[in-house]
Amino acid sequence: MIPINRPIIGQEEKDEVQKVLESGIVTNRLGEGPMNKAFQNELSEFIGVKRVLTVSSGTAALHSALLAGGVKNGDEVIVPPFTFVATANVALLVGAKPVFADIEPRTYTLDPNRFKKAITKRTKAVIPVHLYGHPADMDPIMEIAEDKGILVIEDCAQSIGAEYKGKKTGSIGHIGCYSFYASKNMTTGEGGAVTTNDDELAEKVWMIRRHGEKEEYQCQMLGHNYRMPEIEAAIGRVQLRKLPSFMEARTKNARALTEGLKDLSALELPIVKDWAKHAWYLYTTRVRKEKSPVERNDLMKKLSENGITAAAYYESPIHLSPYYVKTYRYKKGSFPESEKAADEVMSIPCHPAVTDRDLTRILETLYRLLKQQD
Ligand SMILES: Cc1ncc(COP(=O)(O)O)c(C=O)c1O
């Protein structure tokens, strides 16, 4: 079975883990043992940002960013409804209300005009998501946000390596949040990082990571235990060194898929804006209802029967998930672009472990299943 994504861990990671275990330093009460310190510095150089704080997950990174930004009860946080639910849940975790603004249909990222329309007096933060590894259109988002004094938190969970107009994601907004979950372009198993050029925000995240303490037992603000273990940081350092070769393989595979599928009218293929470098976390097509002989979910099932994993990220936009319907009474039709995307998207494997033979199999199978209408 060709998986949709999988961690690629080699002997180098195992050797580094062994060294950490032998050192006896498996964690550090400040979250900054030697491996975490080095990982933070290397990430900050790679992303081109002044400060990086490693944390225990992408969700922890987003939650810390909102806490550091002072977002609280009664505030509103604007998020796209077409993303992983963590992006909206973190607003609820600080007592704020997630307010949805629809996406731009070709890049699946926050539409700056809809963001502008969703702003109220209560808006404190916005979280653009660089979905699938394609950056959101950050310039207009920053312009609108800075005009209104809104904190911009980039959700970079899916975008390590991606660039917007030559700048790495996570170095453009006021604060950026990465995830190193197992499926991501580089992984530490679970894990995350907060990035910022703002020393004050960085100091707050530093405290939040260890229960708001600056000095031992002197809690200054509400925080959590969001430290990253040393073993994870050691794995992350090796993965970061391998990231350029992972990115090259993803880009090569994405190009091969686009070249191979371009004549298949049943599929709409992903685009790359001329200002973007895509990280290709996911290669996401749309199955065009009017042109496809097979319905999207049946197509995914048939691909699975042929040993190919295809997946719909995300089958339901957040506002139509049961918890949000129950809590906020959202109805179908509230965010049409996100709902349409949820009905149509289908991601197919493009990760570095996909071989040329796998690519041929993916292309041949899709042609066999979809060609008859052309
Ligand atoms: C867009 C997005 N935001 C946030 C997260 C949360 O990251 P984590 O799973 O590391 O908590 C993810 C991860 O899956 C994600 O894809």
Features:
alpha/beta, Aspartate Aminotransferase, domain 2, Aspartate Aminotransferase, domain 1, three-stranded antiparallel β-sheet, globular, binds pyridoxal-5'-phosphate
Residue fraction in strands? 15-25%
Distance between the termini: 28 Å
> Which fold name corresponds to the CATH topology of the largest domain?
Aspartate Aminotransferase, domain 2
N-to-C order of helices and strands: HHEHEHEEEHEHEEEEEHEEHEEEHHHEH
With strands numbered from the N-terminus, the spatial order across the biggest sheet is 1-11-10-7-6-2-3
Derived from helix and strand composition plus strand pairing, the structural class reads alpha/beta
* CATH architecture identity of the largest domain: 3-Layer(aba) Sandwich
Write the CATH homologous superfamily of the largest domain.
Type I PLP-dependent aspartate aminotransferase-like (Major domain)
How many discrete domains?
Answer: 2
Number of strands: 17
As residue ranges, the low-confidence spans are none
Rg over CA atoms, rounded to whole Å, is: 21 Å
Largest beta-sheet details: 7 strands, mixed
Attached small molecules = pyridoxal-5'-phosphate
Total DSSP helices: 12
Write the layout of secondary structure elements.
Layout: H1 11-23, H2 34-47, E1 51-55, H3 58-68, E2 76-79, H4 86-93, E3 97-100, E4 103-104, E5 109-110, H5 112-118, E6 123-126, H6 138-148, E7 151-155, E8 163-164, E9 167-168, E10 175-179, E11 192-196, H7 199-208, E12 213-215, E13 218-219, H8 230-261, E14 267-268, E15 276-277, E16 283-287, H9 296-305, H10 322-328, H11 336-344, E17 345-348, H12 356-370
Parallel strand pairs: 2-3, 2-6, 6-7, 7-10
Antiparallel strand pairs: 1-11, 4-5, 8-9, 8-15, 10-11, 12-13, 14-16, 16-17
The structure holds pyridoxal-5'-phosphate.
